[in-house]
Design goal:
Blueprint: E1 8-17, E2 31-32, E3 48-49, E4 54-55, H1 62-69, E5 73-77, E6 85-88, E7 104-112, E8 128-137, E9 147-158, E10 161-166, E11 171-172, E12 174-177, E13 191-199, E14 205-206, E15 216-229, H2 234-242, E16 249-261, E17 273-276, E18 282-283, E19 297-298, E20 303-308, E21 311-315, E22 340-346, E23 349-356, H3 361-366, E24 370-374, H4 379-385, E25 391-396, E26 400-405, E27 409-411, E28 416-420, E29 428-429, E30 434-435, E31 440-443, E32 446-447, E33 456-462, E34 473-479, E35 493-500, H5 511-514, H6 519-522, E36 526-531, H7 557-571, H8 584-589, H9 591-597, H10 617-632
Parallel strand pairs: 28-36
Antiparallel strand pairs: 1-7, 1-16, 2-5, 3-4, 5-6, 7-8, 8-9, 9-10, 9-11, 10-14, 12-13, 13-15, 15-16, 17-20, 17-26, 18-19, 20-21, 21-24, 22-23, 22-25, 25-26, 27-31, 29-30, 31-32, 33-34, 33-35, 35-36
């Protein structure tokens, strides 16, 4: 049962995330350089070419670019009225972000040993949850699932005891919902779902009753992040930049730990029956400001229902939005749009499973927003569930179905993956090692075998550049669960894959439509980054065929800076606070450290450089060859 089993340890609180934002290109589709820029007039405001992983400096020197990027500038509005302009800071809101998590304040709100039990694990209540690591997008231009969480250590402790500690699997944000708050806009109105697993073994401690069963091989850690708040005032941001300071977001978190069983094979999401809403039917409060202009209609984010005999559980941690009221303690109420009930239906007959008390935030946080129902006394529901075509839904008295079960639930262990230009088109870097990418399919809560599953269509979108991405392309029409996805790696860039079986699941033709709700929220997705290797650097090596080549006399610092370090020097200044990447003397002193920090064995940790994980094999080889050259000369 995984997430839906017991024990469950539930928590809530806040943390800070400090991503670097100069690579985000959020403005690319909206702002262009004005006519005063001459040859660069009309180009999108986008500081990185994600396809080539190169900074866009619009002809400026490095010094001028760095100064310009941190100040408010005026740009023309794409599609606006003639002469319409808007101010923007090119580096966006957190230029000096180090991709880290500077502050975590999270504690256990509830611990359940079994259904109806609220006392046997009472000693865990109030325990502190701490963790450290880094975050980075698969692709900074906004290709979901995008944000990855690489965590070195996670610790749950209290009363002088460590209940859990270890390093989990990489997590990737999914079900990104820009309708999470009905009175917040842009990222502040968004939320996302993250799922990790811990495995028992060296380096992992799990000392919680119930997790010691022989069939429990680890722990699941799933959480939801929402309402990220950072300084938004442009003058305040510029003032921070003048001091070289960061502007991290404070973000709310709520989630749960649960057992990981030896039979489980999906480590990125709970399996069961996926409920989604593909139409926005819920009216937001009059006068509120949210991400659903102009009519303010929203839809709910996905939930997952699981049945085990007479036990029905629903994971609705990300489903119901908040209604921001300006509370400084972040205690926003849920947006109350009226009562809803979980219902099961088949052959025009319906039975109520039970009410969803979604406005009770305290109770929801205590149970991790997992709602449990015992239907042993519900004969109508038991009868309907004997029908293999029975489906679950959330029903509202006047709106009808506000969340309904999908025909097919596509799940993948490879949400955010990498490969190299000219490299393998069937093996991808995921959890620190290369593996095939595939999907599994569930219907009615049961996994479909290859023989049971109808042919799947695999859709590919080229998602960069953001201002002009690609259209849906069917790269396979006869895909089966477990088959490897085969990709053309001849060109670098970022690609998003989604899946369909029947006509109701076919994605929109345009990526610019797919990236907005409800598609970005509901559609299955695998995001692939193909890193660029279009320059032959063999002329710079003593032996180009060596496994770890050494640079020759042609490999000067200027070559390394222009081809590798310059992008990071310009767009990720947090690194320059340790040592300036444009200084040959400083980089030479750190050559041994650079070799150590670019070892692939560190890829799953915060120690791996660059934290953005977008340095291709050829550029990494060039940098390391230069480091060996200068070390040999000492």
């Amino acid at each position: 049962m995984s997430l839906f089993d017991y024990p469950r340890i539930n928590f809530e609180g806040t943390l800070q995330l400090s991503p670097g934002t100069a690579n985000n290109d959020d403005y690319a589709a909206n702002y262009i350089l004005p006519q005063s820029w001459g040859a660069y007039a009309g180009q999108p405001l986008a500081l990185i070419d994600s396809k080539t992983v190169e900074a866009r400096t619009y002809g400026m020197s490095d010094t001028d670019f760095i100064a310009w990027a941190q100040q408010v500038q005026i740009f023309d509005v794409v599609g606006g009225k003639p002469g319409e302009t808007k101010p923007a800071i090119p580096a966006e809101w957190n230029y000096y972000g180090a991709m880290d998590m500077p502050n975590v304040n999270i504690s256990v709100t509830g611990a359940q040993a079994a259904a109806g039990d609220n006392d046997s694990l009472a000693n865990l209540r109030g325990a502190s949850l701490t963790f450290s690591g880094v975050i980075t997008d698969v692709n900074s231009e906004g290709s979901p699932p995008s944000t990855q969480f690489f965590l070195d250590s996670v610790t749950l402790s209290g009363n002088g005891k460590t209940y859990l500690s270890g390093a989990p699997s990489k997590g990737a944000c999914q079900w990104l919902n820009f309708y999470r708050n009905v009175n917040q806009t842009a990222d502040a109105g968004a939320g996302g779902y993250v799922y990790h697993v811990f495995r028992k073994g060296p380096g992992t401690t799990i000392d919680i009753p119930g997790f010691d069963r022989p069939d429990v091989v680890g722990a699941i850690w799933r959480y939801y992040l929402y309402r990220p708040i950072a300084i938004a005032d442009k003058a305040q941001i510029v003032a921070l930049y003048k001091q070289g300071k960061t502007n991290p977001v404070t973000i709310q978190i709520v989630g749960s730990f649960a057992p990981l069983y030896e039979h489980e094979t999906i480590f990125t999401t709970p399996v069961g029956r996926l409920l989604v809403a593909n139409q926005a039917t819920i009216q937001t409060p009059k006068g509120s400001k949210n991400n659903s202009p102009p009519n303010g209609m929203i839809s709910l984010a996905p939930g997952v229902v699981h049945q085990a005999g007479n036990s029905i559980s629903a994971d609705l941690v990300g489903t119901f939005p908040e209604n921001y009221q300006g509370n400084p303690d972040l205690s926003d109420p849920k947006f109350d749009f009226g009562p809803v009930v979980l219902t099961v239906t088949a052959d025009s007959r319906s039975a109520t499973i039970g009410p969803i008390d979604y406005t009770n935030v305290t109770a929801g946080n205590k149970t991790g927003w997992i709602f449990d129902f015992d239907i042993s006394g519900n004969a109508a529901a038991q009868t309907i569930l004997q029908n293999p075509d029975a489906v679950f839904s959330l029903q509202h008295q006047t709106l009808g179905s506000v969340l309904g079960e999908t025909d097919h639930y596509f799940v993948s262990n490879q949400q955010g993956i990498y490969t190299e230009q000219g490299g393998s088109g069937s093996y991808f870097l995921n959890q620190g090692t290369e593996e095939p990418a595939t999907v599994r399919v569930y219907r009615g809560g049961r996994e479909l075998s290859r023989d049971q599953c109808p042919p799947i269509t695999v859709w590919q979108f080229r998602s960069v550049p953001l201002e002009s991405p690609g259209h849906a392309e069917a790269i396979s029409n006869n895909f089966k669960p477990g088959d490897p996805i085969i990709v053309d790696t001849s060109q670098p860039g970022n690609f998003l894959f989604t899946f369909s079986i029947d006509s109701s699941e076919i994605p929109p033709a345009c990526y610019l439509t797919l990236m907005y709700p409800p598609y970005i929220t509901n559609y299955p997705a695998i995001s692939l980054r193909i890193l660029p290797n279009y320059v032959d650097f063999s002329q710079y090596y003593v032996d180009p065929h060596a496994k770890e080549p050494v640079g020759n006399d042609l490999l000067t610092f200027d070559v390394v800076y222009q081809h590798v370090l310059r992008t990071y020097y310009l767009l990720y200044p947090a690194m320059n606070q340790w040592f300036p990447l444009n200084s040959e003397a400083a980089v030479t002193k750190k050559a041994a450290g650079i070799l150590a920090r670019t070892e692939f064995s560190l890829w799953m940790t915060s120690r791996y450089m660059p934290r953005t994980r977008d340095m291709s094999y050829s550029r990494r080889t060039l940098l390391r060859a230069w480091c060996r050259k200068v070390l040999a000369a000492k």
